[in-house]
Design goal:
The chain is an all-beta fold and 333 residues long. It is 0% helix and 61% strand. The protein has one domain. The strands form two sheets. Strands 10, 13, 14, 15, 16, 17, 18, 19, 20, 21, 22 and 23 form a twelve-stranded antiparallel sheet that branches. The protein is globular, with a radius of gyration of 19 Å.
Length: 333
């Protein structure tokens, strides 16, 4: 698997510059209605700043988050041309990703917590037809932070151990994405699901937030749907997208392109887990996510109406300014 933006973007960052890059992988286990998210990040890989260092984070059973910092940037490596990177810390904590193989261990001696994994992923869909998620301009530092869906849908096989519980991963739905940049997300929401009981080939990702564009900010959103060979992309360049998200508990989007329409509703009564997210002041607990939310979607092409539902959706809000509901229409580019 080597979709656009697979390689590391932080090569050549000069001393004193702020930069982050983060990777997100999600494994769903429909048989036990659980979800695991693995997150890796690096801030200021060149070193020499107050925020330089890495982090490994897992959102696991019951939306419990676990994390460890990896402060030594010299034990981080990443290939600028392919999905090949890793970081080694102390007390047995490390992670490695090489193409389709993922393995690592998170050990927290203070809480006597342990998580370990080793699995391979077979990609089914990257994004679109192996395209950049945010278009050709994503290769230039115009829109920041950058964002790429590396794998909209795939199957994971291997194992994962959460404390004393061992999970065999057999054809488990898998998802991957990454983000990077010199500016940092201010506020966002995110929805992802590829574990629909009646539609095993369906995957959907939706997101919206504040994005920097040539020194100015705008509110943007997108929805991406893969259903077998069908790919629907509702983006700022081709669609009207309306968003209404509560500070926590409900997400509602409606998207309209010249040929299709789509609507989705995400809900959860779970409190979710607090996540460390990148900011200009380093990692902060400004993210909140559940891996077992409910999601209903409908879409049509003007002739045929489709629907799907799942109880294994990832639902997230992040950043600052979530005191009130957030309602906006995505900007057009």
């Amino acid at each position: 698997m080597n979709p656009p933006h697979s390689g590391f973007h932080g090569t050549g960052i000069r001393g004193g510059q702020r930069f982050f890059e983060g990777w997100f992988y999600r494994i769903s286990l429909p048989a036990c209605c659980q979800s695991f998210a693995l997150m890796h990040s690096i801030d200021d890989p060149q070193g020499g700043t107050a925020y330089a260092g890495g982090m490994i984070q897992v959102l696991g059973m019951g939306d419990r988050p676990a994390w460890r910092t990896l402060p030594n940037v010299h034990t981080f490596y990443a290939d600028p041309n392919s999905l090949d990177y890793g970081h080694t810390g102390s007390r047995g904590t490390f992670y490695h990703v090489q193409g389709d193989r993922h393995w690592g261990c998170l050990h927290d001696p203070v809480q006597s917590f342990h998580c370990q994994w080793d699995f391979r992923v077979t990609p089914i869909h990257t994004w679109g037809q192996n395209q950049a998620t945010m278009g050709l301009l994503s290769y230039l530092p115009i829109f920041e932070p950058g964002w790429q869906i590396l794998m909209a849908h795939g199957w994971a096989n291997g194992w994962l151990r959460w404390q004393e519980q061992h999970f065999d991963l057999i054809h488990a739905p898998a998802y991957a994405e990454k983000n990077w940049g010199r500016s940092f997300p201010e506020r966002w929401f995110w929805i992802q699901c590829n574990a629909f009981p009646d539609r095993p080939n369906l995957s959907i990702t939706a997101a919206g937030g504040v994005r920097s564009h040539l020194g100015r900010t705008s509110l943007v959103a997108m929805v991406s749907l893969h259903n077998g060979s069908e790919v629907l992309s509702f983006a700022p360049s081709n669609s009207q997208i309306y968003c209404h998200v509560q500070p926590w508990g409900t997400w509602h989007l409606a998207a309209f392109s010249p040929t299709h329409s789509l609507e989705l509703w995400g809900e959860t009564s779970n409190p979710g887990g607090r996540l460390l997210v990148p900011t200009a002041e380093g990692l902060r607990f400004l993210g909140r996510e559940t891996g077992t939310g409910t999601l209903r979607i409908t879409w049509d092409d003007g002739k045929t109406y489709y629907s799907a539902a799942s109880s294994l959706a990832a639902l997230e809000v992040g950043g600052r300014g979530w005191e009130e509901p957030w309602q906006f229409t995505s900007a057009r580019f």
